[in-house]
From TrEMBL, chains A, B:
Cytoplasm found in the keyword field: yes
Protein name: 5'-nucleotidase SurE
Keyword list, A-Z: Cytoplasm, Hydrolase, Metal-binding, Nucleotide-binding
Subcellular location: Cytoplasm
Cofactor binding annotation: Binds 1 divalent metal cation per subunit.
Major place of residence: cytoplasm
EC number: 3.1.3.5
Stated role: Nucleotidase that shows phosphatase activity on nucleoside 5'-monophosphates.
Residues where a divalent metal cation binds: 21-22, 52, 109
Cofactor needs: a divalent metal cation; Mg(2+)
Naturally occurring in which organism (per UniProt): Haliscomenobacter hydrossis (strain ATCC 27775 / DSM 1100 / LMG 10767 / O)
């Protein structure tokens, strides 16, 4: 596998925000920081504890803490008590203020965020928050759930994609959802630009009783994909490709706008 | 204002799930339950405490509690310790199992969920979760933030829209984001089917020191809308209309798919 576009970005040293949802001590973010450092100045703001499944949650009812940490050589880094989206808001509005941010990268997530998982994922919601703030952003996920996962297959691809965005920008309101199959780098066939598969979770709550005799439910589930099209992220991943889904935060269903004009007859 | 489509739904008694993010004791959900009861059998599963800003968060690291409550006459109702999305998952997978759900309504939220607030809103995320499960769903919000808000202006419109969906269905993967201006019913000009305005929050964190001398940050913000187009939800609301944004959970940016095919040259 030969990564092209390997000239350095033709611009002043860019500023890159790195965040995630697995927490600042996770392996995945360390990998992403190491790549980002090769491309620009890096600031890290990440949750102080795992925040998987936090989606686009923000902290309204509680104060947030933000502490400087000395975890990554030569990199300004902060841990935050809030959600991934809180981290991006604090980075942009408290730490960076008027400094221009050229790219936000989130991850590398320990586990898939393909298909509808973009909605549940704190990793992708952080990237989406950056896109709301007008910052080009990429969420990276690796299809290996182990805290001890070896991310070395991800680095070349992550660097190439980040470089591409630093060189070409990204149109406003967009973000990329990038998932990387759990394969050695030389077995990865390349990058497929594709759509979000129409998959879903079939929930199977575990029902049990706590030590005080009270019933509880614990969320578990089975990921089901009946969308077999070859232009989907799930197909790409199952066939040895990295999936790249260009995504956006405008959720309007434009096709339905015209269909529903008749609803305006409700009014008179 | 004259609401048409006032014949009763031509079907067996439909089953309607009601949820929200302000918590089961909020006034807004009581209003929605009263309307839903006029249209079908109702089941309520709502958070036991306010969950504003929870977005699409789900509870992975903790057990969930689900307790039957006797709050709404003639209606089976449960309070849940989790997020709005957890409530929908529990309703669909634990309580209803194979029973067909014909509609999910969420709200009525105390405050706006127009424009990008669909992403932060637990109310809308609950509706989106139902849409992921194949259930037609509507999130309702009223532009009055008071816990003592008078929702009487909302009821006729909410009923008309729910009836419309029960009669006509909703195409798969869709949900409606409905916001209602804070006006007396007879001053509301009607319903506008529109797109999500490209607005944003300008964050202004309050920075202060806690009793132990530690610095904290508290999220606040100013909603800024530079998108003045007349086909947006913000325009509709500012001009006395109810906004209805047909929305979807497929976040793929289809316009960007073609543009980005060149990225596949990264691979060889």
């Amino acid at each position: 596998m030969d990564i092209k576009l390997n000239q350095e970005p033709d611009m002043k040293k860019p500023l890159i925000l790195v965040t995630n949802d697995d927490g600042i001590a996770a392996r995945g973010i360390k990998t992403l920081i190491d790549v980002a450092k090769q491309l620009g100045d890096v600031i890290v703001v990440a949750p102080d504890s795992p925040q998987s499944g936090q989606g686009h949650a923000i902290t309204l009812e509680q104060p947030l803490r933000l502490y400087k940490v000395d975890l990554f050589e030569g990199v300004e880094a902060y841990e935050c008590s809030g959600t991934p989206v809180d981290c991006v808001k604090l980075a942009k509005n408290v730490l960076l203020k008027d400094r221009e941010l050229n790219l936000c990268v989130s991850g590398i997530n320990h586990g898939s965020n393909a298909a509808i998982n973009i909605l549940y994922s704190g990793t992708l919601s952080a990237a989406m928050e950056a896109s709301l703030e007008g910052v080009p952003s990429i969420g990276f996920s690796f299809l290996n759930y182990s805290p001890r996962a070896d991310f070395s297959a991800c680095t070349g691809f992550a660097k190439a994609l980040m470089k591409y965005v630093l060189q070409h920008g990204m149109s406003k309101g967009n973000l990329w959802n990038v998932n990387i199959p759990d394969l050695p780098a030389d077995e990865i066939k390349g990058i497929k630009v594709c759509r979000q598969a129409d998959a879903r979770w079939v929930e199977e709550f575990v029902e049990a009783t706590d030590p005080r005799g009270q019933k509880y439910y614990w969320l578990t589930g089975r990921f089901v994909n009946e969308d077999q099209a070859e232009n989907t992220d799930i197909w790409a991943l199952e066939n040895g490709y990295i999936s790249l889904v260009p995504s956006k935060h405008d959720l309007t269903n434009y096709e339905a706008l015209d269909e529903l004009q008749s609803l305006e007859i409700l009014t008179s």
